[in-house]
Amino acid sequence: MTTSIRIDHDVPMQTRDGVTLRADVFRPDDGSRHPALLTRTPYGKHGYFHNDFVSAIAAAREGYAVVIQDTRGRFASEGDYAPGMPEGDDSYDTVEWVASQRWCDGAVGMYGPSYMGGIQWEAAMERPPSLRAIAPAIAASPVYGPHQGRRRAVRNDGRLARDDDRQHDRARRTEGGGMPAVSGAGSVP
Predict the structure, then answer these.
(1) Residues 186 and 158 sit within 8 Å (Cβ to Cβ)
(2) Which pLDDT score, from 0 to 100, does residue 3 have?
(3) Is residue 36 within 8 Å of 67, Cβ to Cβ?
(4) Strand, coil or helix: 47
(5) Distance, CA of 4 to chain centre
(6) 90-136 pLDDT, tens digit each
(7) Is the pLDDT score of 172 beyond 50?
(8) Burial class of 6 by CB neighbour count within 10 A (0 to 12, 13 to 18, 19+)
(9) What's the pLDDT band for 141 if we cut at 50, 70, 90?
(10) DSSP 56-102
(11) 95: closest CA among 123, 66, 135, 59?
(12) Nearby residues of 156 by Cβ (< 8 Å), 6 or more positions away
């Protein structure tokens, strides 16, 4: 257990389209590299460091770097925000940014409930190489609107699905009169 931790507020990172997102980083103050836990929130990172799911301070004392980031257009982060906007690209960029930091060992996990859980599913669908795990709680599948070109969601069997999968399933249900059999968990090609 680490007794001394470091907290950096409003740490900037730049997305692929040039928008600056800001995060608070809680980490052991020992100069070593640590696995990271990431949550991205539209609700304000300053009030999210201690919640019922993960205490950033306790996790940092246990040897994790914890990154809590304001999503695009919210609180300290730049850009425009719209509820339900796609979060995949920003999540990918953030995961890889976290993994590249001198205090991170390259392994990043994501956590959080509700909207933050949906963001994790979107991150996983983008497949950032450094994302090792997600822990969504009380989260529906991602919300997509007409602004999203590639629609995907989480199927009831846990697989990631795309529009063509859902259209195929609808056609099979119509022809066969019921829900089609689904094979085990898989991933989107």
Answers:
(1) no
(2) 79
(3) yes
(4) helix
(5) 27
(6) 999 999 999 999 999 999 999 999 999 999 999 999 999 999 999 99
(7) no
(8) middle
(9) low
(10) HHHHHHTT-EEEEEEPTTSTTS-S---TT---HHHHHHHHHHHHHST
(11) 123
(12) none
